[in-house]
Every structure is written in C-alpha cells, then in structure tokens.
User: Which sequence fits this backbone?
C-alpha cells in the first residue's frame, strides 16, 4: 500500500469503501441500544474524538495522531490538546463514562 491509499476502519459491505457517516451513525446507535445506553449521547464522531484523546493521553506523538486522523494541518489535531485539558480538570467524555459503567458491572 502506498501513502496515498486510505485505509478505513468501517467499510460498506456492498462497496468496500468508507461507510457513509449516516450509516456509521446507525451502527453506533444500534450498538448503544443493545448495550442499554441512550443513543443521542454518543455519535460516530465521539469514537473519533475518543480515539485521538486516548492516544494523546497515552503519550502518542501529536504528528502520529495527525496522520492517523488524516488531518492536513497540525492545528486541527491540536484541538485534542484542548480536550486533554478538560480531562485533566476532571471533565469526563461520554465514552469514558461508558467504559467506567461497563467495568463496574463486570
């Protein structure tokens, strides 16, 4: 695979291409409903933010995160630094709450 080829985490079964955002939201809603959570609280984009924030919190280089997210400008990726500051202040993301709820019941 060359650098210009993109790899997608969620692909359409019919086309093999990236799943349309609305289709991805239906998948997220279905998973949340099956897990007993309110679907309006979680979006497909929440997964993206959570992915980036967890990478950043684990010490992953910002330029690596930029590449993984497909951002053309580092400034876009730096938005996640702002999110990390919220985490340091004790503000918990919805996915962190989901994880905590899941581990408490196990």
Assistant:
């Amino acid at each position: 695979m060359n650098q210009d080829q993109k790899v997608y985490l969620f692909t359409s079964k019919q086309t093999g291409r990236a799943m349309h955002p609305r289709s991805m939201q239906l998948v997220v809603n279905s998973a949340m409903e099956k897990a007993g959570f309110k679907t309006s609280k979680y979006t497909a984009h929440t997964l993206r933010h959570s992915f980036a924030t967890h990478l950043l919190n684990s010490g992953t280089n910002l330029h690596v995160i930029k590449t993984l997210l497909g951002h053309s400008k580092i400034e876009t990726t730096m938005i996640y630094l702002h999110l990390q500051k919220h985490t340091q202040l004790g503000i918990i993301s919805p996915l962190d709450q989901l994880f905590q709820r899941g581990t408490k019941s196990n």
